[in-house]
Design a protein that fits this description.
Order of helices and strands: HHHHH
Radius of gyration: 22 Å
Shape: elongated
Largest sheet: none
Number of helices: 5
Strand content: under 5%
């Protein structure tokens, strides 16, 4: 009560510090995996994505516990495999590029948020349009 009177007297607004709730890493990885699976992009890439994203929680747990680069390398291999499969899809390349950017961006933010060393993720080049040969 005394603080309220002082704040009112001095014309200072009373505010509580902003509290940011951070979801656990495995929850955020699961959410990313669900977004990837929900993408309406047909093709065999989904099987690769399911397997690779299924491996990530365990690899991240080991990476956080040990900080050993080999776990970061394994994570990078899994994610690069998904990105490569997406790039090889014969369907909507705009959608696949957006999904690839979503994956890499989200993982980059997770690494920053949890204080993990960065991954060396590279987006595969966008497929070039095929030119039909004229005989």
């Amino acid at each position: 009560m005394a603080f309220f009177l002082i704040a009112e007297c001095c014309n200072m607004p009373f505010s509580t510090p902003e509290v940011r709730v951070v979801k656990p890493l495995h929850v955020q990885l699961a959410a990313l995996g669900n977004e990837v699976r929900a993408a309406a992009i047909p093709g065999d890439w989904e099987r690769t994505a399911d397997w690779c994203f299924g491996q990530l929680p365990g690899l991240y747990e080991q990476f956080r516990e040990t900080n050993e680069s080999r776990f970061g390398a394994e994570i990078t291999l899994r994610v690069q495999a998904v990105l490569k499969e997406l790039a090889n899809c014969k369907t909507d390349s705009v959608k696949t590029q957006k999904l690839a950017v979503l994956i890499t961006g989200r993982l980059h933010r997770l690494h920053e948020e949890f204080g993990l060393p960065g991954l060396n993720l590279r987006l595969p080049p966008a497929p070039r349009p095929r030119v039909a040969k004229v005989s």
